Amino acid sequence: MKFLAVCSTGLGSSFMIHMNIDKVLKELGVKGVDVDHSDLGSVARGDADAFFVGRDLEEATDTLDNVVVLNSIIDLNELRTKVRAELEAKGVAIPEGNAA
Amino acid sequence: MLSSYLTPETTLFSDAVDGWRDAINRVSAPLLASGSITPDYVTAMTDSIAAGGTYIDLGYGIALAHSRPENGVLKTGLSSLRVSTPVLLNDDPAHPIDLFFCLAATDPTGHLQTMMELANLLSNDELRTRLLAATNAADVSTVINENGTTE
């Protein structure tokens, strides 16, 4: 399972999303998800099971599938909800007790 | 360390900012002065925003202005500018910004620790609220130091 955070430069918002995904996965006690970040020009369909991008890059990611669009890069609550939804959609088990 | 980059010299406040271009010029000025970036970097950031690059809006009225290392970064640096009246990024009403950061990174991973701290700080509801409420560099410094003690 791989989650990839993507932005235009590959070192600003994607970096922040990457670290926040790590934080959310740790909270949830989910292991075995590979998280990385990259720039738009370097990613292609199939590079990850889900691509996380900020709202302004939604159109630029038309060529990708499984794109998760974030309204805010720094809203952990939003990210938590969307990461959980992706894990559930992909059939990744979230350990009991961390479901809240 | 975030605290070694965001110092009184790089933590700016202004109530007289004339649009987003002025904001970018102002927030990057300390990094130009310290030799962290070249004027090309400022141009690259401005051109990127003018071309529709409002993705630097992180949410909550906070923007992280930056460009690629090869566009004029000499050494890693970070600065901030709090404006008293929201500035519309690229004159776009969907992107009112209260707090600008300017990030200069020499390579994609060299600024890992700083970015981790910044992401942690800005993603923490309480600390972010206090950062936005800060009216001087000392307030910012206090918030940053507390950030260092939270996970």
Can you offer a commentary on this structure?
The complex is a heterodimer of chains A (100) and B (151). Chain A has 100 residues and is an alpha/beta fold. Chain A has one domain: Rossmann fold, CATH 3.40.50. Chain A has helices spanning 13-28, 76-89, and strands at residues 2-7, 34-39, 50-54, 67-70. Chain A has a four-stranded parallel β-sheet, with helices on one face. In chain A, helix 1 (13-28) links the parallel strand 1 (2-7) and strand 2 (34-39). In chain A, helix 1 crosses helix 2 (76-89). Chain B has a single domain (2-147), classed as Mannitol-specific EII, Chain A, CATH 3.40.930.10. Chain B is built from six helices and five strands. Chain B has helices at 2-5, 19-33, 39-50, 112-123, 125-133, 137-147, and strands spanning 11-14, 57-59, 62-66, 77-88, 96-104. The longest helix of chain B has 15 residues, at 19-33. Chain A binds chain B through residues 7-13, 15-16, 19-20, 23, 54, 56-57, 71-76, and chain B through 48, 52-60, 62, 64, 66-69, 103, 105, 108, 111, 115-116, 118-120, 122-123, 125, 128.
Give the class of chain B from helix and strand content and strand pairing: alpha/beta
Identify the strand order in the major beta sheet of chain B.
1-4-5-3-2
- Largest interface by Cβ-Cβ < 8 Å: A-B, 21 and 29 residues
Strand content of chain A: 15-25%
Mean pLDDT of chain B: 93
CATH topology of chain A: Rossmann fold
Major beta-sheet overview of chain B:
5 strands, mixed
Number of domains of chain B: 1
User: Which percent band covers the strand fraction of chain B?
Assistant: 15-25%
Shape of chain A: globular
Low-confidence stretches of chain A: none
Q: What general form of chain B does the structure show?
A: globular
Counted by DSSP, the helix tally of chain A is: 2
* Secondary structure: number of strands of chain A: 4
- The helix-and-strand class of chain A reads alpha/beta
Number of helices of chain B: 6
CATH class type of chain B:
Alpha Beta
